Amino acid sequence: MLKVKGLKKSYGNKVAVNDISFEVDRGEIFALLGPNGAGKTTTLKCIVGLRKKDSGKVEIDGKYAYLPEKKELYRYFTVKKMVEITDYYTEEFNKDKAYKLLSDFQIDLKEKIANLSHGMVTQVYLALLLSQNADIYILDEPTWGLDPVMRNRIIEKIRGLSYEGKAVLYTSHILAEVEKVADRVAIMSEGHILEMDYLDVIKEKYVAVTVRKGEKVNGYKWKETENEEVYIVKREDAGSEYEHVGFDVIFEAIVRRDRK
Amino acid sequence: MWFSIDFNSHVPVYKQIKEKIKSMIVTGKLKKGAFVPSIRSLAKDLGVNLNTVSRAYRELVLEGILKVVRGEGYVVEGLDAERFLGKKLEEFRKMVLTLKGDGIEYEKLEGILREVYGGEENAES
């Protein structure tokens, strides 16, 4: 559905995305993870053509819908007017679906966008986007600023897209949320993809081992205690004594490596 | 069908689903020949992705625990209870080793076993 190969993008001297490749299949939810400035947003922007890539290939098989990182709508329009105008300008837009979603989200159609909270603007944006028929949904931080209950509802909607055979590429800062909804993840840092696999496979792949300070270990250093160091290593490199760890620890250790 | 999934556990979600279904078969909640929910419906009930349930079912089929009935779904084929329980006993054994390492005396453990099993005997009589 989506193929990205050798994508590179620099802003001046700063390399934002450094030769990354990945694919997203039909019915699959793919999450791009990483700290701020890892290159996630730039990657999405290059895919949809809002930024001109320096090199690499992007192939999208079908239509896409894109939710930008900054969810800005016309401040002086009412919600209803926003729906009407989106309907006018968007191909394959389902107005009834948009109204239904907005009513689910309990958003007042007569309210001006300017009077909505940040989270509510995100909800309006999502309602518009989810009512657009596409083959792949590219979502930059779709749950940013939402409360936990609303976040879960959005997660359900995103999962619903995959049930219909749509592909989803999305970014999020909230690991607990990613663990709930992503099939596959790519962990990015400083423009590189450091790890990419099925979430369940990553959980099985890594364990934690504790070694004496300074001992050489093939893995990602996670933390130091007074006399010891804790590494996240592949299970086959771990020997007999190891601890199981959650995805958050694995993520932190992998991302940390690049920051040393 | 519903059971709780721990998304933040180090145990992969597909594995949690497999284990749960196996224990439902061992305890007789799922009988041989019975249909398990479709991939879509279980995914929806549990709030997990289709791919996750699909992987769990696929592996259960490979292990001979579920069988695909073409066009109808998945049925319980059976479970080598001895093997399943053997694994559980192996986990128990590991736990006992840990406790032994922690310096717990044999009599203490025996006391617990007697308490647990004794209670059951009393209830039956």
Structure description:
The complex is a heterodimer of chains A (260) and B (125). With 260 residues, chain A is an alpha/beta fold. Helices cover 32% and strands 30% of the residues of chain A. Chain A has a domain at 204-257. Chain A has a 6-stranded mixed beta sheet, sandwiched between helices. Chain B is mainly α and 125 residues long. Chain B has 2 domains: 13-76, Arc Repressor Mutant, subunit A (Orthogonal Bundle), CATH 1.10.10.10; 81-124, no CATH class. In chain B, 60% of the residues lie in helices and 6% in strands. Chain B has helices spanning 13-26, 39-46, 50-62, 81-101, 106-124; strands at residues 66-69, 73-76. In chain B, a hairpin with a 3-residue loop joins strand 1 and strand 2. In chain B, helix 1 (13-26) crosses helix 3 and helix 2 packs across helix 3. Chain A binds chain B through residues 27-29, 156, 159, 162-163, 176, 179-181, 183, 199-201, 203-204, 244-248, and chain B through 7-15, 40, 43-44, 47, 49-52, 55.
Characteristic key phrases:
heterodimer; A: six-stranded mixed β-sheet; 8 helices; 32% helix; B: 125 residues; mainly alpha; 2 domains; two-stranded antiparallel sheet; 5 helices; 2 strands
